[in-house]
Amino acid sequence: MDRTSRGVRGLIIFLVLVTFVVTVKPIIIKYVALRWMSDQGLHPVVIEDVDFNPFLGKFRVLGVSVGLDGDSVLEIQKLSLRVDWLPLFKNRIQIESIGIQGASLSIVQIEDQLRVAGLLIPSVASGESVSGSEWQLALDSLHITDTVVNYQRPEFQRLLSISTFSLANLVQWSPDNQTSISLRADLNNQPLSVDATLQPFAPELNVDWQMALDAIDITPLAKLSGQLFDGQVDAQLRGTVVRNEAGLTELAQTGLLSLSQLEWKHASEILSVAAIEWDINSSIHIEDEANLKYSVDGPLSIQQLALASGDGPALIELQKLTSSRLQFDSVDGLDLGSLVLSQLRVNVRRAEDGQLQGMPMQTAESNDKAIDADAASLRTRWADIHIEHGRIRFSDQSVTPAFEQTLAIDSLRLGALDSEQPERAASLDIKGTIGEHSTLSTQGKLAAFSQPLALELKTEISALELPPMSSYTRDVLGYVLTSGQINTTLDLTIKQGRFEGSQSIKLSQLTVEAALDEEGNPIQIDAPVPLDTGLAMLRDGDDNISMDIPISGDMENPEFDVSSVIRQAIGKAIASASMTYLKFALQPYGAILAATNLIQDAQKQAESAALQAIEFDAGSLALGPQAQDYIPKLAKLLGARPQLTLKLCGMASEAERQIESENKDKEPEALTDAALLELARGRALAVKTEMIERHGVSAERLFVCHPAIGPERDATPRVELKL
Q: Which residues are registered as beta bridge partners of 651?
């Protein structure tokens, strides 16, 4: 065979091989791919066309459709691949381009299992190496368009619609090469963009990135964390990631992070926030798993916060909160900077059972379990807190009638505090209005981080209307306040779990009346002095009452009762002031005032204040020198206190039974009980007559008691006086 024939035959064989490779090889590839995916349990599997040109290094697949259990897990309209064969001789795989168009990919995660396009992805065991290959990879260009990735977990589903994704210049054998990544997509129909440059194969990883999110739903993140909250996040962030050869990693990011339409639910409580904006500057420093340091810093703004419980009005409403610097640092703790709260609204509601709404009672044990030790030791500080135009509305359904009052805070300022300096007290200044016209002013110092709490306050309240306070005085004192105002100054100190202080009170034009129970009977309250009697003794010429009330107690005492403190404090104040007044008004007779009735045990308290009695000679009705001097003082007291009345209780003595006869030879006759009682009654009438006829006291203010015989044989005949 000549040379020409051999050349023709060789050409024919070459053409046949080329034809085989070009026509048959794609069919084989398609068959192998279909068979392999079927062996993986995928069905149905459809590949419309496979085109492979080994000479040009081109590979193209059209119309791929893969199903699993009746669901579509992978669809690709077009996939194209171009490879440069020459680098293969150097153990290098260089892909010039990968193009994916019109794809749909399903990723399903159940616990630790991950299925991508229906294929179960094996996990890498701890310590198992995935590197060490002598082959190296380069990818000049990856371009994905019009692709949907559907990521599913039992808790939620995320749909990522990729408009364009590109990766360029990824070269493993050129570590200093800059690789760029760009993504334009919609995450659950909300815009998402990411751009980054990095050196993935360099000894020191260095990534520069920027990201933009627009109204991304954060509800799935809440489900992952086991919480119930909704909301959206917007972000314009940029940052860097740096990791050196020793594994030390530094992450940093800056930009604006915005959260909107937030709603957090816990039991019956709902916390909602219209918007949070944080101009954030954060960093994370990772040496190893045990050494993590982080810092987040930047000014913060919160708009329209509300905390609601049940169907009633919101417990807390806040129009705006700003922090000049909200810093959270793993080393230095939490720094709130300067806080400004605008238009704070607080509704405190006390239910009929005495429990504050939204603040369920908890045992000390449950509280201890709820507090994390690390969080409890976290350093917390702020430069100052300022509340502008706040309002606290208090309603109490546990009293009858229900009580309501509003404190309007014009300004509240609390100075700097630091949990690492718990003994340091911050200045506190409050200006406000109670109700419509009463003013409140408070100055003092507060050590909020001291254990226990330490506090020094001086509070002044002016022109507070008293009738609304009847809700408390009704059950505490047995009276309702029908009119009057109070001006008061309170000095209070809380230290080492005890509070001590005093309250100066001025009551103006106060009138009271006995409170009635449901059956219309007066409510009986044990008190050292009946309130109306005590108040009558304290009124000055302008119908005002001034008194000082000492305050003390133990905040740690579980038996502590505010009503008991009020009752005892007011009772003691009235008793003390009454005695002081009477001692001076009735001198010298007030000096021996029968004060025991004012301070004795509640079970033995008298119904009225006892004054010094008017004494008589045995068997006599005549008023002696002591009565002639004492009765004018009593009349003057009654004249100065028109509300007072006086009880006149005549007393006879057992010693008066034996009355000597004018006939010395005759034995004395023993007086009967009736005669002694008549003698006692005559003495009371003698005092009443003297006060009416000689001193002008109205008979309506003088009451003669049932006469009595003193059981003591040596008792002094007298008329006892009771206010």
A: 708, 718
Residue 134: pLDDT over 60? yes
Q: Following DSSP, what letter does each residue of 547-611 receive, concatenated? A: EEEEEEEETT-TT--HHHHHHHHHHHHHHHHHHHHHHHHTTTGGGG--THHHHS-GGG--SS-B-
For residue 30, give both structure tokens.
């398609």
Side-chain half-sphere of 278: how many Cα atoms within 13 Å? Answer: 21
Instruction: List strand residue ranges (DSSP E) for 69-189, in order.
Output: 71-84, 92-110, 113-116, 119-121, 136-152, 157-171, 179-187
Burial zone of 295 (CB within 10 Å; 0-12 exposed, 13-18 middle, 19+ buried) = middle
Q: Are strands 702-704 and 646-653 parallel, antiparallel or unpaired?
A: parallel
Q: How far apart are CA 541 and CA 538, in angstroms?
A: 10
First to last CA, the chain: 154
174 secondary structure, DSSP code: -
314: left (phi over 0), alpha (psi -120 to 50) or beta: beta
What residue type is assigned to position 560 of the chain?
F
714/694 Cα distance (integer angstroms): 32
Angle at 356 between CA 353 and CA 357, to 5 degrees: 100
* Type of residue found at 95: I
pLDDT at 598 exceeding the cut of 50 = no
Using one digit for the tens of pLDDT, what is the confidence trace for 343-381?
999 998 888 887 776 544 343 344 444 444 444 568 899
Separation of alpha carbons 306 and 270, rounded Å: 8
Do 416 and 384 form a contact (C-beta atoms < 8 A)? yes
430 C-beta neighbours (distance < 10 Å), count: 20
By percentage, how much of the chain surpasses pLDDT 90? 31
Considering the entire predicted model, what is its pTM? 0.68
**8 A C-beta contact, residue 579 and residue 534:** no
Which letter does DSSP use for residue 516 in this model?
B
Query: What residue type is 20 in one-letter code?
Result: F
Count of CB atoms within 10 A of residue 339's CB?
19
3-state helix, strand, coil split of the chain in percent (to 5) is 20, 50, 30
Cis (ω within 30 of 0) for the bond into 717? no
Question: DSSP states of 474-497 as a string?
Answer: HHHTSEEEEEEEEEEEEEEEEETT
| Helical packing angle, 625-640 and 562-585, nearest 10° | 130
Q: pLDDT averaged over the chain?
A: 80
Q: Which residues of 395-416 are buried (b: 16+ CB within 10 A; e: fewer)?
A: bbbebeeebebebbbeebebbe
Classify residue 492 by burial, with Cβ atoms within 10 Å: 0-12, 13-18, 19+: middle
Bridge partner residues of 492 (DSSP): 457, 501
Helix (H), strand (E), coil (C) string for 411-422: EEEECCEECCCC
Contacts 24+ apart (CB under 8 A), 399-402: 399/471, 399/472, 399/474, 399/475, 400/471, 400/474, 400/475, 401/470, 401/471, 402/471
Pairing of strands 316-323, 269-288: unpaired
Say if residues 80 and 99 touch (Cβ distance below 8 Å).
Answer: yes
What is the sign, positive or negative, of the torsion defined by CA atoms of 347, 350, 352, 357?
A: positive
Q: How far apart are CA 494 and CA 205, in angstroms?
A: 57
Q: Which residue has 């109306």 as its token pair? A: 532
What is the C-alpha to C-alpha distance for residues 511 and 222, in angstroms, rounded to an integer?
59
